[in-house]
Design goal:
The protein is of the alpha+beta class. It has 8 helices and 10 strands. It has helices at residues 13-55, 60-85, 91-107, 109-124, 164-168, 195-208, 243-260, 283-289; strands spanning 132-135, 138-145, 149-153, 159-163, 173-174, 180-182, 185-189, 219-225, 230-235, 237-239. The strands form 3 sheets. The protein has a 5-stranded antiparallel beta sheet. Strand 2 and strand 3 (149-153) form a beta hairpin. The longest helix is centred in the N-terminal third of the chain and has 43 residues, at 13-55. The chain is elongated and about 125 Å long.
Length: 290
């Protein structure tokens, strides 16, 4: 519209008032109302969602992350609705936001994979802080579970930070998930030793250890007749926290008890037989030959 030839004296003030001031003013007021009311509604929805997630006993970090995303998305819809009330074409804005979302998703593909894996780890409680686990090629105690990575402390006090994507796609062995564990040990004795005595000693050692559980009952039996030893399977049940102390103590106690009872624990040996036609060979000559 060419306004250079307009005669402003001929413009009806009532038209300006009705068309521009009242029309735009009304739209502006309704847009503000949509934004303010929408903001209050979003706040209420986020509050209800937070209570529901807390009732489901979800991790606080995950609750904060999910509610922040929900809050941002709902506020975006409110802003678009308010702009539409002003007569602004929001189609291009929606398309721009969608394109930006796709671009960001492609750029952060690995991060999104770690995020998704972190959500799965937290929701399904694969492990918890303080659990001793083996995963992604390392063993250690879980110190923290984040949205994108998990922090683990090894036995020699090293901190390892593992991306959640690597954790979730690998086999996870949780040694602390169950309250009790079975300690699997094998002890060998010589073929000339007393089997009944050896078995009696092993049973007495288990019964004397208060950390060994009575139920399930520990098992002591002959596993196999090996090439150079008779092997006993010794399998007591203990609390998960007592696994390593019982294993180490039993190894020491069995060795001491077998020594006291003159029961040998076979180990690999090699006999060397030297044949010579000269019975008067000297020690020096023998050394030279060897």
């Amino acid at each position: 519209m060419d306004i250079s030839n307009l005669n402003f004296e001929q413009i009806d003030p009532q038209l300006i008032w009705d068309t521009f001031i009242i029309g735009w003013g009304t739209n502006l007021i309704f847009a503000l109302l949509i934004f303010l009311v929408g903001k209050m509604v979003v706040k209420g929805i986020v509050k209800i969602a937070t209570k529901l997630l807390e009732k489901a006993k979800m991790e606080a970090m995950l609750i904060n992350f999910i509610t922040a995303i929900v809050n941002a998305l709902l506020l975006l819809f409110v802003v678009i609705a308010a702009l539409s009330q002003l007569g602004i074409d929001t189609t291009s804005l929606v398309a721009l936001v969608g394109a930006a979302g796709i671009a960001i998703g492609l750029a952060l593909k690995d991060s999104l994979q770690n995020f998704a894996s972190g959500v799965m780890l937290i929701v399904f409680k694969t492990f918890q802080v303080g659990h001793f686990v083996e995963a992604a090629g390392v063993m250690g105690t879980i110190e923290s579970i984040g949205i994108f990575s998990t922090q683990m402390r090894t036995g020699d006090n090293k901190t390892i930070i593992i991306p959640n994507g690597n954790l979730y796609k690998d086999t996870i062995i949780n040694y602390s998930a169950k309250p009790t564990r079975r300690v699997d040990m094998v002890f060998g004795i010589g073929y000339d030793d007393d089997i009944a005595l050896a078995k009696s000693i092993l049973i007495q050692l288990l019964e004397a250890d208060e950390r060994v559980l009575k139920d399930p009952e520990p098992v002591v039996n002959i596993a196999q007749l090996g090439a150079s030893s008779i092997d006993f399977n010794v399998r007591p049940w203990v609390k998960s926290s007592d696994y390593w102390p019982v294993l180490w103590d039993m190894n020491e106690k069995v060795k001491q008890a077998f020594d006291a009872a003159n029961i040998g624990i076979p180990y690999p040996q090699m006999d060397v037989h030297l044949h010579t036609n000269n019975p008067t060979i000297t020690s020096k000559e023998l050394k030279d030959k060897l």
